[in-house]
Design goal:
single chain; alpha/beta; 10-stranded mixed β-sheet; two-stranded antiparallel sheet; 14% strand; globular
């Protein structure tokens, strides 16, 4: 089977190199950094003389908005990112063109998730998993155990040792947040996210800010997409990566924009990306993403995960992009208003709880324990239910794009006030509990 796939790749690679001769600029909007895009740009232009790849780097959310806002005078040929719900969003707005790649023989699923859009509007080129990256030396210096589950990051010992990117600015972080909510349920999931939030050292604006902080030892732990850790390992950084039991594996995707100004160039790039040559680029040390072609894993470094054989990937949750799509803006805004913009208040309340729990460990008192239970409940409480978050009434508030609707501004203020009041009350109860123990 693998030999058949490899043969198909070789045939398609030859096709990629000879089928397009018109050339010209191919403009691609992507959330990937230059470390990822530069090797693909070089490989594509070498395989397709006459074409030049023009890479425009934007966050996933701003990239989607850019494609939508420029659709009347489209200058973009391709959209290239990790988050599958972003492609569902573009497809739903009729901003993607249907295409049938020349490459055949690739698997239909990775884990339990379809590799390609069933209607042919976008295509998986790599697999992506989400989890916990840690700096081994930092952990050792701070006497911290290596975290492997989301619940580990809620523990007191990890306070002020964790980084995450804002999901409103990072499509991969949004996918991680949504995965936790789907895997644990709305209320428990937000409890976990706020528990982790109370231990955060920083919230970065872009996803690659997190691995940079972990690699440099600025912080010890980061919530990231897997390839950030794998590429760091290949570059010699002392880092580890763990897939928590509640996580997912999904394809990173490429799609041709409707009415692309260089349709032949866009098609050539998709075919190159899926060809054996393009897939091999994924294994370069600076990238280290999981190829969608199973045959490439024969060339992978020792210990490199294989989502087509590793049983861990078969037990991961099935990410529901329809659920995510309905509440993307709401989830991202909730995270900002409850965690990112309330970080000092949340950390203060969390630290007070940690201190009281430490004291209770050696002198447990029922009244103090009851106060801490109330404090935990205050932090975990949510201003909206899962049904409300996906309701048309709340979703309609987030349709103004860069210009917020009055209703969106009203909701944001309500949620911020809710968080501020709950965290203040939680801190007061935790301090009262500590006072009873002292």
């Amino acid at each position: 089977m693998l030999k058949t796939i490899a043969a198909a790749m070789l045939m398609s690679a030859a096709f990629v190199g000879s089928a397009y001769a018109d050339g010209g600029k191919v403009t691609i909007v992507t959330s990937f950094s230059k470390d990822v895009t530069d090797p693909f740009k070089a490989g594509f232009e070498a395989a397709n003389p006459g074409f030049t790849l023009d890479v425009q780097n934007k966050s996933t959310s701003s990239g989607v908005k850019y494609v939508d806002e420029t659709k009347s005078n489209n200058q973009v040929d391709l959209f290239w990112a990790s988050a599958p719900d972003a492609f569902d969003n573009l497809k739903g707005r009729n901003l993607l063109a249907k295409f049938k790649p020349s490459v055949t023989g690739l698997p239909e699923k990775v884990g339990s998730y379809p590799v390609n859009d069933p209607d042919g509007f976008y295509f998986g080129f790599a697999a992506s998993g989400y989890g916990i990256m840690s700096n081994d030396r930092y952990l050792e210096a701070n006497s911290l155990p290596k975290p492997v589950e989301w619940g580990d990051l809620v523990k007191a010992e990890y306070h002020d040792h964790i980084a995450i990117a804002a999901p409103s600015r990072s499509g991969t972080t949004h996918l991680t947040i949504e995965t936790i909510l789907q895997g644990e349920g709305w209320d428990k999931g937000w409890g976990t996210l706020k528990g982790i939030g109370g231990n955060l050292q920083q919230v970065t604006e872009r996803s690659f800010g997190v691995p940079d902080a972990v690699n440099s030892g600025q912080t010890g732990i980061g919530i990231v997409i897997d390839f950030f850790a794998f590429s760091a390992q290949a570059s010699g950084f002392p880092v580890s990566f763990a897939y928590p039991s509640v996580t997912t594996v999904v394809p990173a995707n490429i799609g041709i924009i409707a009415n692309a100004p260089n349709q032949p160039g866009a098609e050539a790039f998709v075919n190159y990306l899926l060809s054996e040559k393009g897939q091999a680029v994924l294994l370069e040390p600076a990238i280290r993403r999981l190829p969608i072609n199973p045959a490439l894993y024969e060339k992978a470094p020792e210990g490199f995960p294989n989502p087509f054989k590793d049983p861990r990937f078969q037990s991961m949750i099935t990410f529901d992009s329809d659920v995510s799509k309905k509440r993307t803006d709401v989830v991202d805004t909730l995270y900002d208003q409850l965690i990112s913009f309330q970080l000092d208040n949340l950390k203060g309340a969390t630290k007070a709880i940690h201190e009281a729990e430490k004291a209770l460990a050696s002198n447990d008192q029922p009244e103090a324990r009851a106060l801490l239970t109330e404090a935990h409940a205050l932090i975990a409480s949510m201003p909206v239910t899962a049904d409300e978050a996906a309701s048309q009434q709340i979703r309609d508030a987030f349709t103004g794009g860069e210009q917020k609707t009055a209703r969106q501004a009203e909701l944001e203020q309500q949620w911020a006030t809710f968080a501020s009041e709950k965290y203040a009350a939680a801190k007061t109860k935790a301090e009262a509990a500590l006072g009873l123990v002292d």
